[in-house]
Structure to design on (285 residues):
């Protein structure tokens, strides 16, 4: 029915004003919704890590020591014995087929297999993978699109240091040089850890450089998963946006989200210096 005298109807200008107001309100709400999603994903990671902490505690109670840094298994593809690092495969699911199963151990051989319950707790919702994941001769195969799909786990066990090489120095700075003589938690007893509330047990790649062998040259990759919407992999942390955010599990079982940007960019050759919040390694005893 046509509006009569005394009746009103929206004209074009009024409609445009209303649409503009709605647009402003939506633009104000979107950052809040985005932050809520970030917090939800962080919370999921923290929950996963706490469950991994429980499984690790039961493992240590049973065997008296933390999981080893490597295991020996028969390769599915070659049927030959091979020693494999468990840094990225403390638990989780089977890796992708060759060449990934040549690098990562099968799920049933992972230290926490009997203790993990749901293997999905080793999956990070923000896992974006990283480049150059495999050692030679398979250096062209990356942990893409996610580390979960390639290795069968997103979280890393703090079992082995990896330092950045510096061929410009004379003599070159060795890849495994540290400022002091430090020890890893792998294979150690629970009593060996002096500060369990600060000692990192599990973490995500953004917390540390990933050691790689690309075309027979050792180098480091820095990866960003949480809160990064653009390029996520860098060969120099100093050229990356300050988004090295990583959920971390500590030996005492608590988990927290930490920002490792300063540690990774202040001195890229010594990224493992302890802070008030965390310790990567402690002096050998």
């Amino acid at each position: 029915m046509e509006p009569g005298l005394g009746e009103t109807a929206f004209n074009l200008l009024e409609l445009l004003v209303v649409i503009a107001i709605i647009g402003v309100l939506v633009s104000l709400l979107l950052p809040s919704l985005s932050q809520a999603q970030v917090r939800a994903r962080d919370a999921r990671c923290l929950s996963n890590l706490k469950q991994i902490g429980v499984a690790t505690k039961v493992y240590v109670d049973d065997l008296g020591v933390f999981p080893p840094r490597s295991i020996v298994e028969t390769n599915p593809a070659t049927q030959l014995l091979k020693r494999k690092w468990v840094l990225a495969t403390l638990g989780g699911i089977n890796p992708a087929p060759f060449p990934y199963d040549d690098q990562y151990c099968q799920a049933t051989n992972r230290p926490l297999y009997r203790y993990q319950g749901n293997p999905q707790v080793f999956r990070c919702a923000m896992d974006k993978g990283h480049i150059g994941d495999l050692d030679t001769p398979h250096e062209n195969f990356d942990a893409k699109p996610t580390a979960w799909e390639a290795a069968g786990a997103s979280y890393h066990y703090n079992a082995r240091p990896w330092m950045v090489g510096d061929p410009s120095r004379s003599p070159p700075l060795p890849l495994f040089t540290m400022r002091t003589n430090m020890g890893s938690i792998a294979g150690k007893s629970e009593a060996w850890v002096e500060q369990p509330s600060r000692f990192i047990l599990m973490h995500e790649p953004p917390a540390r450089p990933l050691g790689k062998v690309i075309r027979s040259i050792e180098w480091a990759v820095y990866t960003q998963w949480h809160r990064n919407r653009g390029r996520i992999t860098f060969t120099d942390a100093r050229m990356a946006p300050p988004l090295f955010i990583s959920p971390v599990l500590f030996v005492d079982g608590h988990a927290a989200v930490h920002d490792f940007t300063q540690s990774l960019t202040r001195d890229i050759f010594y990224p493992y210096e302890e802070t008030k919040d965390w310790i990567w390694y402690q002096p050998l005893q």
